[in-house]
Amino acid sequence: MFRTSEGNNSTNRNLLILSLLLAGMLSAIFVIKSLDRQATSSAQLMSPADATRIEINSAYGKVVLALDETVGNEWHMTEPQQGAANADRVAPLLSLLRVPDRTSYTSTDLDLDELGLSNPVASVTINTLHFEFGHLTVTSDARYVRNGDRVYLYNEMVYPLISAGANALLSTQTSDASATNTSRSASQ
Predict the structure, then answer these.
(1) Which of 11, 20, 30, 127 registers the highest number of CB atoms within 10 A of its CB?
(2) Does 134 lie in the same domain as 87?
(3) Overall pTM surpassing 0.85 (yes/no)
(4) Longest Cα–Cα distance in the chain
(5) Average pLDDT for 160-187
(6) Based on the domain organization, do 122 and 141 belong to the same domain?
C-alpha cells in the first residue's frame, strides 16, 4: 500500500509539472502573438476619406491632385495637366496616411544627412500632412520617410510612383463626364 500511495504522489507530481509546463508554453505563445500583432500595427494620421488634395514635388516637378466632389468624389489632376487621375495610382499615395508603428523613430535621434532627409529626393503633401522621401534602406526595400518630427520606413512601392511624373498618375480611361467637361472648356 505504501508503494501505491508513493506511486500516486509521483504521478500527481508529474501531472502537475506537465500542466505547469503546458500553461507556461501557452502563455508564451499568447504573449508572442500579441507582440507580433502590435509590431505590425500602424497608426492612421488622417482618414483617407478626409483627403482632398495631394501635392507631389519630385525631380519631374510639381503635380497636384484634387478630389472633385462634383464628379462623384473622383481624383483629378489640376497641375501640370488637367485630367482624371488613376484611382489605382492614388491609393498608394493615400497609404502614406497609415504610418508603420514598428519603424517609427524620432528625427532628432537620427543622422538626417545619412538617411537622405536633409535634402529629400521628393515630397508628398496630403492636405496639410507633409512627407519627405530620403534614401532606401541598406537591408530592405523600404525608404526613409519623414513626417514632422518622426521618421518611418515605408514600403518602396510609393516612391517609384511619385518619381515617375504626372503621366503615371493620369487615368488612361476618360469618363463621359470628363469628356463633356473638356469639350465645354474647349468651346468657351
Answers:
(1) 127
(2) yes
(3) no
(4) 109
(5) 63
(6) yes
